[in-house]
Design goal:
By secondary structure, this protein is mainly α. 70% of the residues lie in helices and 0% in strands. It has one domain. It is globular, with a radius of gyration of 16 Å.
Length: 140
């Protein structure tokens, strides 16, 4: 079993985005879709991958990107509720930080990304711990 990343942060996200001239967010979208499909497989849903994200975002003039992000936040929040974790974001709070938070000197989207990254870290950490416990129980 491979442990999922639990150390993603907004500062590194911003630095990598700048260094890769905007390509890192696409890589992160890919990682989110792969990792959510692994951690949230109990809900029998699928998070669309990078190719679908790019194509549908282009076809819908950017609207699908917002929909994809909201679906990812909702899926992570439901995972948190299912396993007794406190979700850092809901779809409504994510949209509010992104839309109205932009009026706070542009800090709203950064706060939304911070919360998104850390909720993703929380879910990955919880999933890693569950897999370790499962491995221990199988070895017994």
């Amino acid at each position: 079993m491979k442990n999922l990343a639990t150390n993603r942060g907004v500062f590194i996200y911003i630095v990598f985005t700048a260094l890769t001239l905007g390509i890192y967010p696409l890589y992160y979208i890919h990682r989110v879709s792969v990792e959510l499909n692994e951690t949230c497989d109990a809900d029998h849903k699928k998070t669309a991958g990078l190719l679908a994200y790019i194509l549908l975002t282009i076809l819908t003039f950017g609207i699908y990107a917002i929909v994809w992000q909201c679906l990812a936040v909702d899926r992570m929040a439901k995972y948190c509720e299912r396993y007794g974790l406190k979700p850092r974001l809901t779809v409504v709070s994510y949209l509010l930080w992104n839309l109205f938070g932009s009026m706070l000197f542009g800090l709203g989207p950064v706060i939304a990304m911070y919360k998104f990254l850390h909720m993703h870290n929380d879910i990955n950490y919880d999933h890693n711990m569950l897999m370790i416990e499962l491995e221990k129980s199988i070895k017994r």
